[in-house]
Amino acid sequence: MATRGVGSVVEMARRGEGDSDALLRRGNRGARSEQLAAGLGWFSIGLGVAELVAPHAVARAIGLKGRGVTPALTRLCGLREVASGAGILSERRPAAWVWSRVVGDVMDLALLAAGFAARGANRSRLAVATAAVAGVTVVDALCAQELAGPSRVSVQTTAEGTLRVRRRTTVNRPPDALYRFWRDFSNAPRFMQRVEAVQASGERRTHWRAKGPAGLAVEWDAELTEERPGELIAWRSLGDTPFRHSGIVRFEPAPAGRGTVVTVEMEYAPPGGAVTATAAKLIGYAPEQQLQEDLRRFKQIMETGLVVMAQSPAEPSRPLASGGA
Amino acid sequence: MRATCWMGKTDVRVQQVPEPTIVNERDAIVRISSTAICGSDLHLYNGFVPTMQSGDIVGHEFMGEVVETGPAVQNLKAGDRVVVPFPIACGACAQCRRGLFSLCENTNPNAWMAEKLWGYSPAGIYGYSHLTGGYPGGQAEYARVPFADVNPLKIPAGMADEQALFLSDILPTGYMGAEMCNIQPGDTLAVWGCGPVGQFAIKSARLLGAEGVIAIDRFPYRLRIARERAGATETINYEEIDIYDALKDLTGGRGPDACIDAVGLEAHLPGALGAYGRIKQATGLESDRPHALREAIMACRNGGTVSIIGVYGGFIDKFPIGSLMNRSLTIKTGQCHVQRYMKPLLERIQKGEIDPSFVITHRLRLDEAARGYDMFLNKYDDCLKVVLTP
Q1: Which H or E run includes A236?
Q2: CATH number reported for the structural domain that contains residue A239 in this entry
Q3: Helices first, then strands: H and E counts in chain A
Q4: Measured over all CA atoms, what is the biggest interatomic distance in chain B, rounded to whole angstroms?
Q5: Same domain membership, residue B277 and residue B151
Q6: Domain tally, chain A
Q7: Does the pLDDT value for residue A1 go beyond 70?
Q8: Which helix (H) or strand (E) is B124 found in, with range?
Q9: Given this model, what pLDDT does residue A274 score?
Q10: What is the three-class DSSP state of B44?
Q11: Total domain count, chain B
Q12: By residue range, what is the domain housing residue B275?
């Protein structure tokens, strides 16, 4: 993956685009899903026109005989495809039209299943066609799902396939104190749950060791890219690490002495890009939630001096095996 | 040590568990001398509070003697007698500084769970499900008290446990319920529910100058205590008398100036409507049965206040928003900010203005906790409040 995108959070923040206002105005739902929808729209129209103009050839290509009711059914499917495609391409929010593709996919799968029983059908061609439609169904469903919801400020997928995560918390302490604690990166393991150790390896460089997914150790070097005492700290990973990222934390005084608003923005380039990111989402991994929990611990330490725990993790207060008293 | 553990729906047992230890520098360990079963423990008991796990230690009303303190706790030492407020506060966040201690921003380690259900998280609470932190509770021999430098209140020498114990929850909760009514001279209040919290709300309303307090319940013994001990001026048994009709009459046709819901999510209602509510709750169409709340809103005078101190957990059906909006009602509510009230109420107890022990009907050993829950839930033997001694 190209390093494009990494470091852009810092640039964005410099340009002032990292402000929530700007993000909210832009309402970025992830350019990727919109591009994908447009692609699916053109695909619909192309397939639809072929089915309308040359139903016999299409039928033969997928392993059916171009006789009987087949050409008429193929033309009907073509009409449906053209309608879905035109709908997707003409709407600003095409989620419903992408869902219409999902419905169409299911119909196609049913027709293909019926095709297996038809006399003179080419089973192997049918099997290939069925697999292709099944694959497209998954893409359609994922795309529709991503388009359907409103976009979230806390997590976005960029057109380049990077993940942009953003969280804010308000801490009842002045900006300077928070800045100093964060700037001493050796404090990071106290509030960043996955980080195990941070060592200085140069004037502006640090070496990080963390628990990755499935307990795997991940290590990387990071470089301080910008710092303004009491205001912001920006950094990015160096070299070829699986956790390629950049980040910025800003400390802004809240109005009327209400402490400090802390804003963290990070941009990840997950190995495997958007596919990995989508797969991670499907199994419930939420990087924005991880960042939220890290910020919660940061606030606890800064306000109370410690990380709050409900009970001793070493010896939890649970009934002993020996049972009743 | 022995501790009361929630093992499942309507199943609590006293079990052997490891003794708590100092986890953080601001912790203290308290050897519990008295602890009580709260009405809200019955919601756990009946399985209405999500995220309980089998083996969780319950109890959030307790007091005792400090036996150990973390290095950062300077104001307490071993041997001090303290009463512990049920919400855990850090004392430093913006909400604690505002005095809204039950909304402490730092003490719920499972804040994410509460955020999913409620939007934002309140403070951690002892023995009250994992939604509010999963802290081991105080119906036990010992408890770990986090942020011991800001939470517990020292009890003056010579004051009996039974005078001080209810400063942990139900006395301040009842008092806050009355205080939220902003009582003016001549005001008449109505209080739904004559459990211990309702009794203290009635008593507090009189202390704060209410001219009349109308107590509502369905158990004659509870109404009698409300009249004779808490100072209710009128009582209504809702199984015999229509509440709205009676309140309208008792308040000269205006309605009570303020209504307090000291019932919460397991309200009862006789007849078909009550059965309908139970079916909806059982089938998950609503998590809470808001009969008392609906009545309190409908009965309140125009421009009056509805104060909710009964516990709700989730979602309700048929909320009379039209009545609320068109008649300029004010709703005030919250888990009690106990730390705000403990000292002033301790003074009232010392002055003899209130003797909180009047609600106690049963004194049991900790080992008899299961019997205590059963009695309190089913109102056997005119049970109003159970105090347990480890």
Answers
A1: strand A232-238
A2: 3.30.530.20
A3: 11, 8
A4: 61
A5: no
A6: 2
A7: no
A8: strand B124-125
A9: 61
A10: helix
A11: 2
A12: 171-333
Q: What is the pLDDT of residue A281?
A: 66
Domain, as residue range, for A274: 152-304
Nearest chain A residue to B23 by CA distance is A312
- The answer as to whether A96 is a domain residue is yes
B-chain residues near A306 (CB < 8 A): 24-26
| Pairing label, strands A155-157, A232-238 | unpaired
* pLDDT score recorded for residue A158: 76
Tens digits of residue pLDDT in B92-119: 999 999 999 999 999 999 999 999 999 9
Q: Examine the fold and report which residue of A132, A148, A164 is the final residue of a domain before the chain moves on.
A: A148
Q: Please indicate, yes or no, whether residues B183 and B165 belong to a single structural domain of this protein.
A: no
pLDDT (0 to 100) of residue A280:
67
Contact: A310, B109; criterion CB under 8 Å: yes
- Residue A162 phi, psi (nearest 5): -85, 160
The dihedral over CA atoms of B307, B313, B315, B320, expressed in degrees to the nearest 10, equals: -10
**Which chain A positions have a beta carbon within 8 Å of B143's beta carbon?**
none
Instruction: Identify the sign of the CA torsion B110, B114, B119, B121.
Output: negative
Torsion of CA A265, A271, A272, A277, to 10 degrees: -40
Together in a domain, A88 and A121: yes
Asked whether residue B179 falls in the same domain as residue B44, the answer is no
Mean pLDDT, rounded, for B344-351: 98
Size of interface A-B (CB pairs under 8 A): 95
Confidence of residue A96 (pLDDT cuts 50, 70, 90): confident
A119 and A168 inside one domain: no
- Which of B52, B62, B45, B46 lies closest to B137, judged by CA? B62
Find chain A residues with C-beta within 8 A of B94's C-beta.
170, 172, 258-259
In angstroms, what separates the C-alpha of B19 from chain A's closest C-alpha? 7
Residue ending a domain, choose from A131, A148, A165: A148
Q: Which residues of A fall within a CB distance of 8 Å from B26?
A: 304-306
Sheet containing strand B2-8, strands side by side: B11-16, B2-8, B56-57
Residues B349 and B238 in one domain: no
Is A308 close to B124, i.e. CB distance below 8 A? yes
**Partner-chain residue, chosen from B3, B13, B136, that has the shortest CB–CB distance to A311:** B136
**Nearest beta carbon to residue A306 from set B24, B105, B124:** B24
Let me know whether A205 and A110 are in one domain.
Answer: no
Compute CA distances B345 → A98, B159, B174, whole Å: 63, 14, 11
Global confidence as pTM: 0.85
- In chain B, the residue whose alpha carbon lies closest to the alpha carbon of A260 is B94
Q: For residues A125 and A158, state if they share a domain.
A: no
Q: Tell whether B75 is within 8 A of chain A (Cβ).
A: no
Say if the Cβ atoms of A324 and B16 lie within 8 Å: yes
Tell me: the pLDDT tens digits for B260-298? 999 999 999 888 888 888 888 888 888 888 999 999 999
Residues A36 and A100 in one domain: yes
The reply to whether A78 and A207 lie within a common domain is no
Instruction: Please check whether residue A255 lies inside any domain of the structure.
Output: yes
Query: B108 with B164, same domain?
Result: yes
Q: Under an 8 A CB cutoff, do A319 and B5 touch?
A: yes
Residue A289: closest C-alpha in chain B: B112
Which backbone phi and psi does B117 adopt, to 5 degrees?
-85, -40
ipTM entry = 0.94
Residue from A304, A307, A320, A322 to probe the interface with B (highest B Cβ count within 10 Å): A304
Mutation target vs B (from A154, A308, A315, A322; most B CBs, 10 A cutoff): A308
Looking at the structure, tell me whether residues A262 and A288 fall in a common domain. yes
Q: Is B46 exposed, middle or buried (0-12, 13-18, 19+ CB in 10 A)?
A: middle
DSSP E strands: which ranges in B137-273? 142-145, 153-154, 188-192, 212-217, 234-237, 258-261
Residue predicted with more confidence, A242 or B150: B150
Does residue A39 sit in the same domain as residue A123?
A: yes
Angstrom distance (rounded) from CA A253 to CA A172: 10
